[in-house]
Amino acid sequence: MPKYMLIMRGTDEGQAEFEGMDFTEVIAAMGRYNESMMNAGVLAAGEGLSDASEGAVVDFSSDTPVVTDGPYGETKELFNGFWIVDVPTKDDAIEWAKRAPLSGPGTKLEVRRVNGPEDFPQDNEWIQKEQQWREQLGTE
Amino acid sequence: MARAARYGVSAGHGAAADPASDGGTAASAGRGREEDPAAARRAVEAVWRIESSRIVGALARYTNDFALAEDVASEALAEALVAWPRDGEPRDPTAWLLATGRRRAIDAFRRRSGRDDRYAALARDLGEGDATSGAPPSGGDDADLLWDPDKIDDDRLALIFTACHPVLSKEARVALTLRVVGGLGSEEIARAFLVPTPTVQARITRAKKTLAAARVPFEVPPASDRAERLGSVLNVLYVIFTEGSTASAGEDWMRTDLADEAIRLARVLWRLVPDEPEAAGLLALMELTAARFAARTGPDGTPVLLADQDRRRWDASAVRRGRAALARAVAVGRGLGPYGLQAAIAEQHDVARSVEDTDWERIVVLYEALGRVAPSPVVELNRAVAVSMASGPSAALRLVDDLVAREVLSGTYLLPSVRGELLAQLGRADEARAELALAARLCGNARERGVLEAKAAALR
Question: Pick from A22, A38, A128: which is nearest to B271 by CB?
Answer without folding.
Answer: A38
